[in-house]
Amino acid sequence: MVFENAGAARVVRIGIDIGDLTGFEPDALAFCLEALIDPTTAAGATIDLVRIPGSGFCHTCTREVALARRYDACPECGGLDIDLRGGRELRLRELEVE
Ligand SMILES: [Zn+2]
Question: How far is the CA of 76 from the centre of ligand 1 (A)?
Answer without folding.
Answer: 5
